[in-house]
Amino acid sequence: SGELHCSFPNPRNVRFESINMKNVLHWSAPEGTGDGVLYKVKYSVYGVGKWIRKTECRNINRTWCDLSNETSDYEEQYYASIKACLNGMCSDWMETTRFNPLTDTKIDPPVVSVSSTEKSISIILTAPEKWKRSPEEESVSLVQVYPGLQYNVSVLNKKTKKRWFFSISNNTLVVPWLEPGTAYCVSAQIHVTTPLLYSGFSKEYCIATLKDKTA
Amino acid sequence: SVAEIRSGFTAIKANIQARDPIRTLSILSYPHSLHKVKSSDRCCITHHLFNFYVDKVFKHCKTEDLYVNRKISSIANSFLSVRRRLQQCHEQNQCMCGQESTEKFNQILANYERLNVTSAAMKSLGELDILLNWMEKSP
């Protein structure tokens, strides 16, 4: 009947890795297998359950498969499954845990832009965009996806090493009463309250306040 | 509070969902997703669902794992306190139930009754993130 005999070792560590809802399936090769192993991928929507083959990831030798397009509705949950084959022998289908894009994605840090006057600095924060199919597609900021999205902002006085922390809901912050002619470094992080998610802190963006003209 | 429910569930989500092998049925999502509910019906459905979880789910979710059982009972306690507040809204007629929300909730009960009690309860518990995502979504 042409059914492949299944006694081949299973792929391992099958899981979704998601950043800003770019949802990529990853796995490790079966133990003790060298080159030449080919993989098949299928996925299903939880509650529907019908397995759908991912044709672009049929008989591939790499150990990842981008399922962002198939899992882009973040109000749904998903499963994916991998089978490994070599020389007519293949493994069992190995499944992920249930993947919920809204709670299981990681979020990149915000983009930080700063400007300064003599005694203040102005900070504008931009949250990352949700993954999209093509550059032409309309952008969706993660602010629209997560109503509870906030920013934690750190401001460091490079001279005194004094650091302030702010937690803000909107994306702009003006820090007043600063020292003229002094360098300040800003870093920011995204904090979603529900579901509870944190991005890493952005790299530091440094700027100097203008010199005091009257001095 | 809802945040306590969320953090309690996150701690046992993988364990609970792994106990539910049925992919072809969802209690809360199909055939009509919670996300299609009109905002005017949200309070009524939320009230119904909190009663559903307290009356039909938590009591049937015993596991062999003490840690998981403790988390389930703390989630259940949080549900009881939120339900009390919803009950007040209901009594003050601020939580009206229209035909659509009644139909929607009956669909959820029908999904639940398609499985034996333990499987249905464990599946419902595993879908708490669906309920929480819907509740926390802006109307």
UniProtKB/TrEMBL annotation, chain B:
UniProt keyword terms in alphabetical order: Cytokine, Disulfide bond, Secreted, Signal
Predominant location category: secreted
Protein name (record): Interleukin family protein
Family that this chain belongs to: Belongs to the IL-10 family.
GO cellular component: extracellular space
Superkingdom of source: Eukaryota
Subcellular location per the Swiss-Prot or TrEMBL entry: Secreted
Gene Ontology MF terms in the entry: cytokine activity
Species classification: Eukaryota, Metazoa, Chordata, Craniata, Vertebrata
The protein's role, per its UniProt record: Immune regulatory cytokine.
Residue pairs linked by disulfide bridges in the UniProt entry: C43-C95, C44-C97
